[in-house]
């Protein structure tokens, strides 16, 4: 609709550039396919014509034409800005390093029951909200000059050759699994089946039948470059930054979903940012329910009051919550002692929706 309106405005402006001419269409009425078409008469001046009982059109004066064209230009500029508003950067890029690589990720969020398939009738929850899958795309910008080793390791899971029988780990099969309600850190890049194992006294990554060397993502910094602003690690001072835990051997990464998380400066390294989030993926994620030791939390906002919802829909009292948390901790500790692996599926900050990456590539 916006594009059609722009074409119509451009057509009108082109007509107005015909200076000193006026057009009068006379005897205008409905014609059949065999009837004679209307006659177009051209005059060489802007003189006033007698009123035509059917149709009469006069070209405006030169001043009116200039005013209209100026208004038209402002309207086109405003409509272009509105059309491009969805593609502007999702982060304030001021003060950040140069973007060396751009990567896209197609993401999706499941329904509350974990499904994605198409249904004849949409799901509607008790609050009357439509519960349907969410589809979106993220565009990531990487700081290859500031964090070259991080970017190199990250790109190894983006540019992956396709193999049917023995596939390599790739972000195209990754998931977002955790949202910390205390600091708003969203953990993604978790590839199912990729685990850290110990082999011959060292750590390796195991994926299916493959054994992959496990390397740290930390940046080698020379002593004379420690004070240089070009090599100094970036601070987690804004929303939308990509970060990786320094001692983590896996390709999982974090996304800052709040304005400031500087407490991560000592343990994590910033290596990129979210350039585009047209569909509002981050805003959607922070509204999703997560699991805590006390129960399910419906929203993860900083300094917000968190209601602990019980099975019957009521709010648990603080004493009952404390007893429940203590008992749960005792049973979890006992289960860990006996090696119960089911505890890996229940952890603090677990997102209670399936959030998956369906496609990844270089732009």
- Tell me the total number of β-strands: 17
Proportion of strand residues: 25-35%
Task: Sketch the topology as an H/E string, one letter per element.
Answer: HEEHEEEEHEEEEEEEEHEEHE
The overall pLDDT average reads: 74
Major sheet: order of its strands? 3-6-14-12-13-8-7-17
Question: Biggest β-sheet: count, sense, barrel?
Answer: 8 strands, antiparallel, barrel
Poorly predicted tracts of residues: 16-35, 39-59, 78-88, 301-318
The dominant shape is globular
Q: Compute the separation of the termini in Å.
A: 28 Å
Helix percent band: 10-25%
SS-based class = alpha+beta
Radius of gyration: 31 Å
> How many helical stretches?
5
In words, what does this structure look like?
This protein has 363 residues and is of the alpha+beta class. Helix content is 20%, strand content 25%. The chain has 5 helices and 17 strands. The chain has helices at residues 2-16, 62-84, 148-155, 281-285, 318-337; strands spanning 22-26, 39-43, 101-109, 123-124, 130-131, 134-142, 175-179, 185-188, 194-199, 202-207, 210-213, 241-245, 253-256, 268-276, 290-291, 296-297, 350-362. Strand 9 and strand 10 form a beta hairpin. Helix 1 runs antiparallel to helix 2. The chain is globular, with a radius of gyration of 31 Å.
């Amino acid at each position: 609709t916006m594009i059609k309106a722009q074409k119509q405005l451009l057509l009108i402006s082109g007509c107005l550039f015909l200076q000193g001419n006026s057009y009068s269409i006379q005897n205008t009425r409905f014609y059949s396919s065999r009837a004679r078409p209307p006659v177009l008469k051209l005059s060489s001046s802007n003189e006033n014509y007698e009123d035509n009982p059917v149709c009469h059109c006069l070209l405006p004066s030169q001043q009116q034409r200039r005013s209209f064209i100026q208004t038209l230009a402002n309207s086109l500029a405003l409509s272009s800005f509105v059309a491009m508003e969805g593609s502007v950067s999702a982060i304030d890029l001021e003060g950040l390093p140069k973007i060396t690589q751009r990567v896209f990720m197609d993401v999706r969020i499941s329904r509350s029951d974990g499904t994605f398939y198409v249904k004849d009738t949409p799901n509607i929850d008790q609050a009357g909200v439509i519960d349907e899958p969410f589809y979106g795309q993220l565009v990531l910008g990487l700081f290859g000059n500031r964090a070259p080793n991080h970017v190199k390791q990250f790109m190894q899971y983006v540019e992956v050759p396709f193999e049917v029988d023995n596939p390599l780990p790739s972000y195209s099969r990754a998931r977002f699994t955790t949202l910390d309600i205390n600091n708003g850190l969203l953990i993604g890049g978790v590839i199912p089946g990729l685990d850290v194992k110990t082999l011959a006294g060292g750590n390796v990554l195991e994926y299916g039948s493959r054994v992959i060397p496990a390397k740290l993502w930390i940046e080698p910094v020379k002593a004379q470059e420690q004070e240089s602003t070009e090599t100094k690690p970036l601070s987690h001072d804004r929303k939308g930054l990509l970060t990786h835990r320094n001692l983590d051997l896996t390709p999982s990464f974090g996304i800052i979903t709040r304005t400031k998380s500087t407490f991560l400066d000592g343990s994590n390294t910033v290596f990129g940012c979210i350039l585009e989030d047209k569909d509002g993926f981050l805003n959607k994620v922070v509204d999703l329910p997560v699991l805590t030791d006390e129960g399910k939390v419906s929203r993860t906002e900083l300094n917000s009051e968190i209601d602990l919802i019980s099975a019957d829909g009521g709010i648990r009292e603080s004493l009952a919550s404390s007893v429940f948390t203590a008992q749960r901790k005792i049973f979890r500790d006992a289960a860990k002692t006996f090696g119960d692996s089911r505890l890996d599926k229940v952890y603090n900050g677990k997102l209670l929706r399936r959030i998956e990456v369906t496609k990844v590539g270089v732009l």
